[in-house]
Amino acid sequence: MNLAESLGFVPQKTTRAVRAINVGKLIPNPENFYHIGSLDELKASILEDGGVRQNLIVEPRKDGTYLIISGHRRCQAVKELLADGADVEADLPCEIEPDHAKAERLLIRANSSARILTPWEEVLQAQRADEVITRQRSEGLINETKRQAMQKLLHKSSGSIGRLCAIYNNLIVDLQQKMKDGKLGVSAAYEICQMRPEDQQGLLTTHNTFGIEEITLADVRHYKDMNGVNVRDDPRQTTIMDFIGDDPAPEEAGEPAAAPEVIETPAEQADVQQEETPPAEAKEPEGQEDIFMDAEYRQMMEERRTVEGSVEARLFKLWTIYNQLKDGRIDDDKYINDSQYECHEMYQELDHLRVVIEQMREKRERMK
């Protein structure tokens, strides 16, 4: 299977029933917070291909309509083409997913695998996943631990998920808006959200005073150093430790085998029941490190794992963007713009990683 197939960009076999459904019966999912963006390229591609060639995934409703799970952009593109009088088929190929619980998870999976998300979309996605999994575990629909379910659904380490949840729960509203506007990345937002609300507001006011729109990680650290700002207790302690510290379910007793991280896709969700075990967390070297394992050093280790996970995710996104260019799904300008964004974010995260590693070295030197 090539990359395009694994990401669900070409038709694949499915165990779901497939039927043609008129766009008038396809209803946008109210839980879909992902940005649709410009549809010009997609509409041109649909016209060139003679219609939509990749199945949408939908959930049937009692009134005879269908709730879209995967395919919002394709559906909207066809509606706009029809409104413009284009000669395009109004009946779209749809896979029917009757299981509402699976449909809720699939809405998140489809977008986490096959889309390049904005920083704010990543935050909202983690929050939504937390909400869905918490409820479905309480209803007995998910047997695995919350930690395992979150990792599998979002394709991220628990540390990365924790960072996103911390941002959602602790970043002030005005700075959340900065993320929505694309002026604040995840690394900088996580650094900020550990500050008291009044310090967060002070940082924002300072930037607004000087007319600086984008807030970088270096800006945040400079502000903290200049104003003597100390971070509060790690906000993740009150937002995600309930699943990071989850006890395994009874059937999961024993030591699980480590498995490579699997990037799931909309098309690969046909056999949802065959979900794989999430990857084992990376372990720090044993032996010498043990003497430094106080609470401060453990927090440094967790932060290092979080940043390393983010860098790895950026690398995968760069690979995805490159393949989209080679497959003709995006033009040169979008390829460059999207790649620049990911490289910019990765540069900041690598800078963050350098600082964390240096802090760990200094800690080890002090403890000798």
Q: Brief description of this entry?
A:
The chain is an alpha/beta fold and 368 residues long. The chain has helices at residues 3-6, 40-49, 72-83, 100-114, 119-138, 146-154, 158-170, 173-180, 186-193, 197-209, 217-227, 241-244, 295-326, 332-367; strands spanning 17-22, 26-27, 56-60, 66-70, 91-96. The chain has a five-stranded mixed β-sheet.
Helix and strand sequence:
HEEHEEHEHHHHHHHHHHH
The number of domains is 3
Under the CATH scheme, which class of the largest domain?
Mainly Alpha
Return the CATH architecture of the largest domain.
Answer: Orthogonal Bundle
- Our measurement of the CA-to-CA distance between the termini, rounded to an integer number of angstroms, reads 51 Å
Oligomeric organization of the protein chains:
single chain
What helical percentage do the residues reach?
A: 40-55%
Tally of helical segments: 14
